[in-house]
Write a structure and sequence with these properties.
alpha/beta, UDP-N-acetylmuramoyl-L-alanine:D-glutamate ligase, 11 helices, globular
Length: 327
């Protein structure tokens, strides 16, 4: 699937879906039961932003893309803080709407000393994202080259009508990347929209839940059988990422060493996706776009939360080993 031609549209990528206020709690011994009634000491609890809108949106913005946020937040302290922080990062928030009754989505991220984490999550307002929401947002999609939509698996109002939502976004002249979360949803929900999706790179766990398969190539071939013609891939954690830019094309993208100590793996998958999409939007070849994604993920894990470790395009491209002429 070729990258989109440069455009005079004001937005490179509109990120639509979950946005979350994250409370980061560290260190928590996740390998043993906490036990009822126990008090244990932690470092200062921090507030960070999470969810694909905040994570991948911030990553794209740090990499020099013009980014807009599209989601639902509550009429509460957390919603106002999400809006404030996204605007401070440089994201447009005109498409970030306030729900009159539902609370902002929140997560308590429990992080162990190795950086592994578990989440206590309240879905909140994004559960109300549905087809009418997408149709109402159509003028915003019409201003963007690409829409990143996710997380499938955590958007119960959208998943039964996912194909219609993707078609509505495409009808606005906007191309579509899809991302999963939670268990990734079902193949029955994903399959009808795959012929309309330009980029889809789920994790192995989510893709296995959808397809019942464990082999990454077999999973991608399954998606191809459902009509997918765009860039596909499977994120494999520390084993890197298998990309298939087009049918019968395969690229092994390595997991790059972090430019510092690994502090927290939260958001690494979203960071990879931000780098991959930024490379794609810049017109980089698929391998270079994948390496930019790997470098963005490597930066992500060097600080707490999903975005604190992210760097600008020049520093990330250098870590990816991209030649200056590809910048």
């Amino acid at each position: 699937m070729p990258t989109p031609a440069p455009s005079s549209l004001p937005v490179d990528c509109i990120v639509c879906g979950t946005c979350v206020a994250d409370m980061l709690v560290r260190p928590v011994p996740l390998t043993q039961p906490l036990g009822a009634g126990r008090l244990f000491l932690v470092e200062p609890i921090e507030l960070a932003l999470g969810g694909i809108v905040c994570n991948s949106g911030t990553g794209l913005r740090r990499l020099g893309m013009r980014v807009a946020a599209s989601s639902l937040v509550g009429d509460d302290l957390w919603g106002a803080e999400i809006r404030r922080r996204l605007e401070a990062e440089g994201l447009a928030t005109d498409a970030l709407q306030t729900h009159p009754t539902l609370a902002t989505s929140t997560t308590a991220a429990l992080i162990d000393p190795s950086g592994e984490r578990s989440f206590a999550h309240h879905v909140g307002a994004p559960q109300a994202i549905d087809l009418p929401f997408i149709l109402k947002q159509r003028p915003h999609f019409a201003t963007a080259r690409l829409a990143l939509l996710g997380y499938v698996g955590l958007l119960p109002g959208l998943e039964p009508v996912l194909a219609g939502a993707v078609a509505a976004i495409r009808s606005a002249g906007c191309r579509v990347a899809l991302e999963t979360g939670g268990n990734g949803g079902t193949l029955a929900e994903i399959a009808p929209c795959l012929p309309l999706v330009d980029i889809y790179v789920p994790s192995l766990l989510e893709a296995s839940h959808q397809t019942g398969l464990e082999d990454p190539r077999g999973i991608i071939e399954c998606y191809r059988e459902q009509g997918a013609t765009g860039m596909l891939g499977i994120k494999l954690g520390t084993r890197g990422t298998l990309l298939s830019p087009a049918p019968d094309e395969w690229l092994d993208i390595p997991c790059l060493p972090a430019p510092g100590s690994v502090i927290d793996t939260t958001g690494a998958g979203d960071a990879f996706l931000a780098g991959l999409l930024a490379g794609w939007l810049r017109g980089l070849p698929a391998r270079e776009a994948g390496l930019l994604g790997a470098a963005t993920a490597a930066c992500c894990v060097t600080a707490r939360g999903a975005t604190a470790g992210l760097k600008d395009f020049a520093a990330t491209a250098e870590l990816a080993g991209l030649q200056p002429e590809t910048h």
